[in-house]
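Please produce the structure of this protein holding iron/sulfur cluster.
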Amino acid sequence: MSWNRIVPPAPTQTHCPYCSLQCGMTITRGAAGPGGSTGRRPGLEIGAWVDFPVNEGALCRKGWAAGGLRGSRERLTTPLVRDPGTGELRAAGWDEALDLVAGRIRVLQEAHGKDVVAVFGGGGLTNEKAYQLGKFARVALGTSQIDYNGRWCMSSAASAGNQVFGIDRGLPFPLADVEHADVVVLVGSNLAETMPPAARHLDRLRERGGRVVVIDPRLTPTGERADLFLQPVPGTDLALALGVLHLLDARGAVDEAYVAARTTGFDDVRRAAAAWWPERVERTTGVAADELRALVTLLAGAAASAGGERSDRRPRVMVLTARGAEQHAQGTATVLAWIDVALALGMPGKPYAGYGCLTGQGNGQGGREHGQKADQLPGYRMIDDPAARAHVAGVWGVPPESLPGKGRSAYELLDSLGQHDGGKALLVLGSNIVVSAPNATRITRRLESLDLLVVCDLVLSETAALADVVLPVTQWAEETGTMTNLEGRVVLRRQALSPPDGVRSDLDVLAGLAERLDAPIAFSTDPEEIFAELGRASAGGRADYSGISYARIADEKGVFWPCPSAPEGQAQHPGTPRLFADSFATPDGRARFVAPEYAGPAEQPDPSYPVHLTTGRVLAQYQSGAQTRRIRDLADDGAFVELHPLLADRIGATDGRPVVVRTRRGEMRAPARVVTTIRPDTVFVPFHWVGANRLTNDALDPVSRMPEFKVCAAQVLVPAS
Ligand code: SF4
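Below is the modeled complex.
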């Protein structure tokens, strides 16, 4: 059966195109409607899928408006090729465009070697596309130079999870477990705005008498739900965690029995935390010592636990990190420190407790499991592991030695383009690099220096506008594929609509190019067939999907990995909603404490750049905004600069009037938004529009290679005119 070609009868149960919650929704074809926030569009009505457990029918504004690009004049419906005479993009046929791309790749590779062609993927691609893109790079192109924008999203949490637990799954439990915890600590997460349906779990937790702690330099709608809100200086969450560990130890609140039975390495953490007494933490983070003590009191259980009925036992504590904690030059160390807190309390593996990362992009989880990351092969296998190479090469039908080795990480790959040892051609799927890369002016120059830039997209994004060839591809409801949400639940995003004439799937693009490049194997365009192959390639790996099928996902409303295939004649594996109950995925089954050292942000304020700049999201927009900025129902006022009244007074800024934010890398101008909810020493800029990432710092975490999006030194001023 070809899931990519059949448009099933309406309504179709499918999933939102955007964030990692992957909310269930229904799409009904043929309904005429007035547009607007109901999600109705001529020919398309989005409705609630109330039985889908993750969102129980709720959607945020973006989900209701997801059909807004359907029928839009902004949709690309023909390939575009840059005319060498005029320098402009002109319409072209598919054969002409694909022939041109393949021909130029051949010439470049013959002259400069395989790695002259690089590939850049996205955390929004389906599992099938991410898998096929990794296979295309290694087999059809033979290049090691592939990475994806998920490196910029949650790779620090992935690195930390692998080090401590031996596995990287964002949440090791279903999201609904949140509401059964006693204390939930959100570090650098604004889930009430970024994934609003998830916030109901916090509300239910509080109705039960549980407590919510939010740690963020800005008092966001999530912080407004908190019982305890801490507002540290950006980039100091690691010092705060060390302070928590210090006080837990000083109060005798460490779960020594758990630490002895289920972990290794706590003594090093104890030594590292000893130097972080509350007053030192206060000087570093700006969080008052008494606030730190209040947090530790909640965690240690001196306060009554939820409902007051379980005060004889430790509260069930859940620590959740997101981009605010992770997008730092010390992102991995910061996540390690917060995992240390959860381990010291004895939580990971216990019901309704533990540590989790709130993944951001729609398929940020699955996208990093199946081979579009520079160092990985499908199933979360490592590309430098000979056994992994042999297994995957066997599934692909190629010799293991033909597979290239490890390539550069996302930022390093882009920064090498056009340089003496870097790529001269780049193929981009599902990413708008010009808006989303840190130090974006520098990276845009790198893109402009390429011999060949090929971009597959739905619309002429800022990156596509620079391309030599633009290939128009299907959007979410026009094709079938699987996504893996923040819980590790593999869901089926069914096709509900026929794609516009002239548009092809990314899978068709890869197959067409592979054929033209004389790839040694054929590339399927059938997502179900590709998913079955992905399962075989992942079998025995850390992210084992081999027991999952489209039919099972449809029947069970998602299946949690790992889910190995069952031996002949045995019952199928049920999937794994909860990890770590009995052991961790490390060789000895124990979680490994890692003692982090605090170094602070790579760039500190000074007299020239005296404030902290931090970036983030707003409710109506998603990531680089390539899609959501073009949807009328999500229209808003564009970028802004949020600053505190004290700072506004000092520089003479007025609410709604322009200010300029400048860093060592660039500047942007936008209206001031003067609010009391941000620290007086910090400004905030949303990153959905061109500009914010011209400012951000490209300092990389030494382990995850995550750039420090979340903090740098800046000056803010009122322009002369
Ligand atoms: Fe749900 Fe996220 Fe889509 Fe909003 S953007 S509807 S929270 S999946």
